[in-house]
Structure formats: structure tokens, C-alpha cells
Write a structure and sequence with these properties.
Blueprint lengths: L2 E4 L6 H12 L16 E4 L2 E15 L2 E13 L8 H15 L5 E4 L4 H5 L4 E2 L2 E7 L15 E4 L5 H11 L11 H8 L8 E9 L2 E12 L9 E10 L2 H12 L4 E9 L18 E4 L2 E4 L2 H4 L9 E8 L8 E8 L2 E6 L6 E4 H9 L4 H7 L3 E2 L5 H8 L12
Parallel strand pairs: 4-5, 11-12, 15-18
Antiparallel strand pairs: 1-2, 2-3, 3-4, 5-14, 6-14, 7-12, 7-13, 8-9, 9-10, 10-11, 15-16, 16-17, 18-19
């Protein structure tokens, strides 16, 4: 058996789409937009065995824009599994990113998180899902709404984009959306005869939130309301906008279920409705993140406190990360460099990714056994410096 790790060529992209589609159980047409130079595949005896691609993304890290490699379209055909192809591809990709000084952080949404946690990824965000009957969208303290709801459409993309950018200003994990992402991910017509809808809430002509949602019929016959409303995107800048948009969902008389499969973990609905358990809320893992180049990754984000942190990093896949480092945050800048100072903590690269995104604090990580503490007095500084303004979340699939 001969193993070759290289990008796919243009003439091999049809096979790339077939391999990705077969393994991820989506139509192969969904995977035909990946440029060959953005792929890195395993070929066994000349046969494309493992597909792998990465988009250059811009992601918010505590409000600051950062370059991230968005890993996607990963799949290995069953005859070639458990043979190390994906590990070889991942190591080659990380080495290339490091040597070319490209994106110092990689991120992905995993079909199975265990596959990628072996390679130093950590679960760096969580996401909420609701499945609620409209009659339970009933607020404990309804706000007097001074504004109005109105229908919108993709024609108002600049308005929607402005609201989105204002919402993510201090957040972590949200992507900078270009027009192709808006139109390719959020605006395509709904499948199976469903309708795509847009609602905007505004007060005095000032837009304060929007929702993109689709309405579809249940396939099975059922008495009474026979429709489902599925939220694609939900942005709000004020409590009034939040309640108004949810009240809009409650007004569909033929809808028996409102579904939101991707909401940030700090979404407030459970704290606002009369019967929170009827939301059938589920919290699950979201984005996985991986620090590829620690020296360039940690300074990408904003730090809201000043100080010096010293840590021993363990990383067997990216040996250039392994060793003792110090992070110094001063004003609006941060510097990471190797040091001979005694380390306050020893941690694996996956745990450092969780701290970078603000998914957990150093104290919580220590309580979980995800890091070793050498200087307990320094934990409070770690918690303060590494904190993010808002819990991390990524609203977009890539």
C-alpha cells in the first residue's frame, strides 16, 4: 500500500465531492464549491481515500477579528478507515499553516467530537436548541413594545448585515459573513415546498433585530396545526426586539412546533417564559477549536485585563508549540514568547483552546482535571485575563 498526502487536482474534484458526500450523507453537489488548492487528501494506491478541506475564515475572538482555518468536508471511505490517513492529513495541514504563517487556529463542526479531540482540538463553544409549542411562548414579564414588526427580504441585506455586526461586536466564535455566505447559507429557498421568511423589529425607524425562518408542513398526517417553524438566524440588540420576534413566532395559528437548533448558550428565553421546561431545551457541543501556532494565536483576541501568565504547553502533534510560554497583556495588545520563568500551569493544547475562546475558566479546568496547577495563587489572574465578555458560540456551519 502506498499513501500520498496532497491537494486534489481539478480533475479529481468530482471524486472529492463523491467521497465527502458519501461519508457525510449529503448530496455530492454540496461539496463541489471547494477550490482544489484548499484541499488536502489521502490517496491510497492512487485512489482518493480521505477528503479534507479548509476555508479561510474571519472569526470574532472576544470582539476582535481573527483568521481561522475552517476545516470541512472531512471523510474517509470505509475500506481505508483506522489506517491513520486523517492523522497524517491533519499533521500535514497544521505544519503547512505553521510554516506558511497562515491561520494560527483551526476550527470545525464535528460529526463526532472524539475523532478530532485525538488531534488536540477542544470543544470551545456550546449551543442551545429549543422545540416549543407556540402557546408556551408566554413571557413572565411582557415588555411594552413601542416599535413594530415588519416583513423583510434578502433585498435588505445591508440592514441585516449591520444588525449582525452590531450584535457580534464583543462576541466570540461568530464569523464575519461575506455576501456569498449570506446568500449561500441563509438565503437559499427552503426545501420541500417550505417558505423562507424574514422579520425585522424596529422602533422609530431604527432596526433593532431580525429573524430568518422557514415554515414547512409535517410529512405525517396530524389533526390540528400541521406546520413547523424553524429558525435559521436570530439577532437582537434590545430586550424589546427579543420579545417581539419570539411573539411573532407565537402568532402562527397553524404552527404546532417552533424549532431553533442553533442558539448561543447565553440565550435568555429560559429565564423569560412562564414554563421554561416546555422549551425542551437541549445544550450540546458546538465548535471545536485547535491552536496551531500558540505564539501567533493567543495575541489574536482581545484581553480585557492586563497581566502576565506563564504556562507549560503540551502538544505532541505540533512540536513547535510544546514548551514553556508567557502571555503578557498590556493595554490593547498581547505578546506571547518562550520563557524560562516557572510555569503556573501545565496544560494540553486542547485545554488552552478552551481558555482562549472563553469556554471555561482556568479554575473550572483545574477542577475538572484538564490542567495541572503549580501556583494556586495565580489562578485568579488566569480567570480574569482569559475571560470573554460573552460565552462563545458560532451561528454558521462551514
Amino acid at each position: 500500500m502506498t499513501l500520498e498526502i496532497r491537494p486534489a487536482e481539478q480533475g479529481e474534484m468530482e471524486e472529492f465531492a463523491r467521497v465527502a458526500g458519501t461519508n457525510l450523507a449529503f448530496p455530492s453537489e454540496w461539496f463541489r464549491g471547494m477550490p482544489p488548492e484548499r484541499t488536502l487528501c489521502a490517496f491510497v494506491d492512487g485512489k482518493l481515500a480521505t477528503s479534507y478541506g479548509a476555508w479561510p475564515l474571519r472569526m470574532r475572538l472576544n470582539g476582535r477579528k481573527a483568521g481561522v482555518a475552517g476545516v470541512t468536508m472531512v471523510g474517509t471511505m470505509p475500506p481505508y478507515r483506522r489506517q491513520g490517513q486523517l492523522r497524517a492529513i491533519t499533521a500535514a495541514h497544521f505544519k503547512r499553516l505553521y510554516e506558511e504563517r497562515a491561520e494560527p487556529v483551526a476550527a470545525l463542526f464535528a460529526s463526532l467530537a472524539a475523532i478530532y479531540q485525538r488531534f488536540g482540538y477542544g470543544v470551545v463553544s456550546s449551543q442551545l436548541a429549543y422545540r416549543v409549542e407556540p402557546r408556551y411562548i408566554d413571557f413572565v414579564q411582557p415588555l411594552p413594545l413601542a416599535g413594530r414588526l415588519r416583513e423583510s427580504s434578502p433585498v435588505e441585506l445591508p440592514l441585516l448585515e449591520n444588525l449582525y455586526l452590531r450584535f457580534i461586536e464583543r462576541r466570540t466564535g461568530y464569523l464575519e459573513r461575506d455576501e456569498s455566505r449570506w446568500r449561500g447559507t441563509l438565503f437559499p429557498p427552503a426545501d420541500g415546498g417550505a417558505t423562507l421568511n424574514f422579520a425585522v423589529y424596529e422602533e422609530g425607524g431604527d432596526p433593532q433585530g431580525y429573524a430568518i425562518y422557514e415554515i414547512t408542513r409535517f410529512h405525517e398526517q396530524r389533526p390540528g396545526p400541521y406546520q413547523r417553524l424553524t429558525v435559521r438566524d436570530f439577532i437582537w440588540l434590545t430586550p424589546s426586539a427579543y420579545q417581539a420576534l419570539w411573539q411573532c413566532f407565537a402568532r402562527f395559528d397553524l404552527v404546532s412546533e417552533v424549532s431553533c437548533f442553533r442558539l448561543p448558550p447565553d440565550d435568555p428565553l429560559m429565564h423569560l417564559v412562564q414554563e421554561p421546561r416546555m422549551l425542551q431545551a437541549v445544550c450540546r457541543d458546538g465548535l471545536l477549536g485547535r491552536i496551531v501556532d500558540v505564539e501567533r494565536a493567543l495575541p489574536l483576541r482581545r484581553y480585557d485585563a492586563e497581566g502576565l501568565l506563564v504556562f507549560r504547553l503540551r502538544d505532541d502533534l505540533c512540536p513547535w508549540n510544546d514548551g514553556v510560554w508567557e502571555l503578557e497583556s498590556v493595554g490593547d495588545e498581547a505578546v506571547v514568547r518562550r520563557t524560562e520563568r516557572p510555569a503556573e500551569l501545565t496544560l494540553p493544547v486542547s485545554t488552552l483552546a478552551m481558555l482562549l475562546f472563553g469556554q471555561i475558566s482556568a479554575t473550572r479546568a483545574a477542577e475538572m482535571g484538564r490542567l495541572d496547577v503549580h501556583d494556586h495563587a495565580g489562578l485568579s489572574a488566569w480567570d480574569t485575563i482569559m475571560a470573554t465578555a460573552v460565552p462563545p458560540f458560532c451561528a454558521d456551519i462551514f
